[in-house]
User: Fold this.
Amino acid sequence: MDLRIALAGNPNSGKTTLFNALTGLNQYVGNWPGVTVEKKEGRLKNHNDVKVVDLPGIYSLSPYTLEEVVSRDYLISERPDIILNIVDASNLERNLYLTTQLTELGLPVVIALNMMDVVKKNGDQIDSKALSKKLGVPVCEISALKEEGIKEAVDTVLKSVKDNKVTIPTHSYSNEIEEVLADITEKALANVPKEVQRWHAIKLFERDSKITEKLNIDSRALSQIENDICKVEKELDDDSESLITNERYLFINNVIDGSYKKKRKGETTSDKIDKIVTNRFLALPIFAVVMFLVYYISISTVGTWMTDWVNDCLFGDELSLFGLALPGIPAAVTSLLESINCADWLIGLIVDGIIGGVGAVLGFLPQMLVLFLFLAFLEGCGYMARVAFIMDRIFRKFGLSGKSFIPMLIGTGCGVPAIMASRTIENIRDRRMTIITTTFIPCGAKLPIIALIAGALFDGAWWVAPSSYFIGIIAIVVSGIILKKTKLFSGDPAPFVMELPQYHIPTVSSVLRSMWERGYSFIKKAGTIILLSAIVLWFLQAFGVEDGSFMMVEDLNNSILAFIGNLISWIFIPLGWGNWEMAVATITGLIAKENVVSTFGILFGFAEVAEDGAEIWGTMAQAFTSLSGFSFLVFNLLCAPCFAAIGAIKREMNDKKWLAIAISYQCIFAYIVSFMIYQIGSLIVGSGNIIGGLLGIVVFAAMIYLLICKPKSVN
Amino acid sequence: MTTLKDIQMGVKYKVAQINGSGAVKRRIMDMGITKGTELVVRKVAPLGDPIELTVRGYELSIRKNDAELIIVE
Assistant:
């Protein structure tokens, strides 16, 4: 079997950089079994028989976070051949805390002491030989960024594997604790392999519920152990978990005393930058400028130019390249297929279905790549952690993270990159909440719908567009507060104790790599669902019963889609717009929201309409009242986003159940809000019926209740 | 009894005790805030919460709610 190296270390310790240096381009991304934590594996450069498994960046092996549980489960049950522990030398104390836990696992451990260049530059001194001796672990000095010392580290790792010398931890706990540990081992761990006995004993001492459950110890032994632990806790005046943590850090103080000399000096460059960037008065203006730049370049200008080019030229009508006027891909393929006398339906499938679908996937990519470039830079340089620091106060009230600000902002441009931007949020609950609520913000493609309704029914009133954004923001706040109280988002409150890493300039290659990885995962994971839905919807639109037989239809009125529209339109009667045309327009909005306008154009007898549908304003005004129009608008703003965004949700949730939860929540929420608007509104203007109005008020009251009620305490 | 929530900025304090339990307490301690650790509050976020402190040679941000669990002297 292949040799397996597990790469373990703190977040911000340079682990990803080292992993890239070790494996080159030879890596693949997957998932840890059963969870949505990303798993990266690769083959060691020049050693094709050696696998490197990149564990999530963690501070500890506690049972409280998914990443930590995944890591320790892997280390305990999969037993890699060796652990390569990357330690940030410029942040030695806290990094060695994880080391004290890794050395207890009964595996060989090698330390790669990273960022030695920074330490030397600061004038500090680390005696890695003394460190190695005190920890009982080989220590190699490296700089992952400059790719220095990597070869030596690899050699040390391979040698240690060959010698198969299991690391024996050099630290022990106070006598009282050691006695209990010995007792636990004897009473409960006789059947556990010898090399992992100590680790399990410590976990039992800490009352680690996950391990206790797994070991299935008989209740008598367990209660005896509990007695012993209580006795020590009383004697040493702290809970067992804290006792262990305290002693680990005491041991580290002792290790560092003889091996680390910090040159006394003032602020580092990073401190100086931080003084300005998170300054009480300057922080918000600087934040605004950074966000403006990200938005302006990726959404307003460069990103959109590139996306527009792909959508309107490459996958559009005409492509001009170096002054040459060429047909776009659809036109070129159409004429090619026509020249070989291809059947109409096949041309339709290939051009409108498949190429259209591929275009929908690729069209978002350029914009997304520009955005990912910024995100990778902001993460790499350390500013992203400050974003969370600055915005935390506002967002945490709604079950979101300070970092949710970026997806929401990007969401005003396009929901697809916005959802993909939620990747930067570490806490999984905050991330899910962000993904579910981000698309409530009206994106660029929803603007034509707003323009249509405002123009046709409100005489272009100024307040329609702002009210859409307002409703979007309220929807996020309301959803955040309500969802936070549900079982889906309950559980241990995640403590927001976050490291603010040192600022540094990330390498070009790491930024590009991160950008590409995200872009590629969008194509791969979101692409399929987008392509498939585009083809299915094309089929529904293009086929139907015409002149008594099933065929490709000329008239959308005869399509399967129209049939489906007729079938489901009753659902929307309580919202005030139960016509099949409106149902069909809502469905085609799933391909891209701006399609709502063009679908109305076609259904009302115009071949092509302007972006705001000015030609059909008159017909619209007859089909809708102001109230039902507004209800239609709100429903289309809040309900399930377009397929591309749904694909992105699927990618980021990485879980079918959560995809379903997100989409159904959005649709139900949209329905409820539109229902309230239409029914209560009708009551106010005096056109509605009493029952509907009362129901509307009941729903409204229920929502207010959910907003203010206390969450049930969850034990 | 002073908690980390209301200590003076820029002054060095020593951790006397950490209240709370479970995930929150473990996380605080995992990050290196243990009994006897010296720490300095560097700044407060522009909106008044969370706070930033230096502990064991690195910068950590913590919400005031959680900071309240940490008793200093």
Remarks:
- Residues 175-261 of chain A form a domain with the Helix Hairpins fold (CATH 1.10.287.1770).
- Chain A has a mean pLDDT of 89.
